[in-house]
Amino acid sequence: MRKILLGWGLMLTAGVMGASVVGASGGGGRGQRRRGEKRRGLHRVQHGHCSYTFILPEMERCQASPVQYGSTNMVQRDKPPPAESDWSAQKLQHLETAMENNTQWLQKLEKYIQENIKMEMVHIQDHPVHNQTATMLEIGTNLLTQTAEQTHKLNVVEAKVMNQTSRIEIKLLENSLSTNKLEKELLVQTSKITKLQDKNSHLENKVQVLESQQRDELEDMREEKNRLQGLVRTQTTAIEALERQLRVASTNNSALQRQHQQLMESVHTLINMVSTGTGILLRDQRFCDCAEAYKAGHNISGVYYIYISNMTEPTQVFCDMETSGGGWTLVQRRVNGSVDFQRTWKEYKMGFGDPAGEHWLGNELAFQMTSQTQYALRVELRDWEGNTPYSHYDKFQLASEKQQYRLFLWGYSGTAGEQSSLVSHGTSFSTRDADNDNCLCKCALMLTGGWWFDACGLSNLNGIYYTVGHNIRKLNGIKWHHFRGPSYSLSSTAMMIRPSDF
Ligand SMILES: [Ca+2]
Question: What is the pLDDT of residue 103?
Fold first, then answer.
């Protein structure tokens, strides 16, 4: 900006601004009146980049005071004072003159300004400062543009950052919620764990109490065990003593048995001697059973040879020629327990024992005999009190080995019970090695011997032989239920057959 001071009190200030009159007023320190100075007016004109300030002298306000030549109060008066109209005319003329002077002066000024402006413009256009200013302006503009772009980019980045921040905040919020949930869950779990720990400690206490009790009981049991072991040692000693005594007794018993055997042999010898003159053991006469021998005139009981079925070799059998008309072939006999009846299937099939004493004729021979013709069965019994009842069956038949020597009986009668102690129809024969009974158990092992057990039935004449005094309460003895009940063991038995039509 430049200031041009004119000789007659005009100061011109030029700047690089648009050309326009900004305003005209008295102001600033320069335009302020000082005491003793003439009044001056300060006027500024803006043209483009330049501004011009003019300081113009103001007219003296005549000598009249505002009171003398008019105010709003004067106008409102009803009647002007008488000398005032002349004064006003003078004043008006004076003002017109002043205005004319001013107008002339202003025209001069305008002309001057226009010339000066032209010169200034030429001067400004030629001056390199203008170019520099333009360049600076251009650079400024570019800087502004770049700044605007950078600002825009920054805004975009800021928006992104804001978005990202928002997302992170949301996630943080979510995480915070999850954390809260987890914390709650953790509290619940902690509470549960505490409860469980309480329970656990309670149980541990119980276990400790139980362990203590068990220790005590174990101690008691140890003492009891020691006591029992002492007892067992005592008993073992006693048993050993008893065994020694038993061995002595057995030795004595063996001696008695030998004597008994000798006696039996003597008896057999005597029987044979007696039978020599009565036809017993006649091998040259072929009887098919004792009934034939009886019919042939042999009426003495004893051992006879008979030829069963188509057998070429004779079989020794005992014939009872006295009981109920005689002619009976013995199938079984127990008298003294001298023969062991705990035998196998094969032994019961083929027969065992001594026909003159205790024996089992054999299932196969009985089957062959009862296949020839119809036989009756008689069961002779004796208890230890001397009672001798019998059971009679009109018809007796055995099936083959393939059918387990099944038993078939018809027409029971007799004195050994009102009912039969043998199951009548189709009971299979069983031994300890052939379980054909109708029990889930093995009757032959429980009751001993071989028999038509059913399950396990009311009779067993092949059980263990118990001597007198030992014969009661014996389920595995020689029993016939409808005679002496289920646990009485009899002293002697005999099963015998002869043809039904004898
Ligand atoms: Ca069975």
Answer: 85
DSSP per-residue string spanning 308-333: -TT-SS-EEEEEE-SGGGS-EEEEEE
284-311: b or e for each residue (b if 16 or more CB lie within 10 Å)? eeebbbbbbbbeeebebbbbbbbbbeee
**Tokens 């008993």 belong to residue:** 235
* pLDDT for the residue numbered 183: 94
Residue 355: which pLDDT band, with cuts at 50, 70 and 90? very high
| Cα 430 to middle of ligand 1, angstroms | 9
Under a CB-based contact definition with an 8 Å cutoff, are residues 495 and 379 in contact? yes
CB proximity list for 46: less than 8 A, separation 6 or greater: 17, 18, 19, 20, 21, 22, 52
Residues 6+ apart with CB under 8 A from 49: 15, 16, 17, 18, 124
d(CA 387, CA 68): 192
How far, in Å, from the CA of 59 to the mean position of ligand 1? 163
CA 444 – ligand 1 centroid, Å: 8
List beta partners, residue 320. Answer: 328
Report the amino acid identity of residue 431: T
Q: Are 449 and 344 in contact (CB under 8 A)?
A: no
In the reported structure, the alpha carbon of residue 406 is separated from the centroid of ligand 1 by a whole-number distance in angstroms of 15
Backbone angles phi, psi at 501, to 5 degrees: -95, 20
pLDDT of 12 over the 80 cut: no
Average pLDDT, the chain: 83
Place of tokens 């001071």: 5
Which residues are 11's β-sheet partners? 5
**pLDDT tier at 288 (50, 70, 90 boundaries)?**
very high
CB 43 within 8 A of CB 53: yes
The pairing of strands 459-460 and 479-480 is antiparallel
Q: How far is the CA of 448 from the centre of ligand 1 (A)?
A: 13
Query: 304 and 287 in contact (C-beta within 8 Å)?
Result: yes
Task: State which residues have CB under 5 angstroms from ligand 1, the bound ion.
Answer: 435, 437, 439
DSSP class of residue 118 equals H
- Six-digit token pair at 416? 């050994």
Q: Which parts of 383-429 fold into alpha helices (H)?
A: none
pLDDT given for residue 277 in this prediction: 42
How far does the centroid of ligand 1 lie from the alpha carbon of residue 443, in Å?
A: 6
356-399 pLDDT, tens per residue?
A: 999 999 999 999 999 989 999 999 999 999 999 999 999 999 99
Find the DSSP H helices in 321-462.
345-350, 363-372, 443-447
How confident is the model over 119-151, as pLDDT tens digits?
877 776 666 666 777 888 888 888 888 888 888
Q: How far is it, in rounded angstroms, from Cα 455 to Cα 52?
A: 151
Mean pLDDT, range 235-247, rounded to an integer: 91
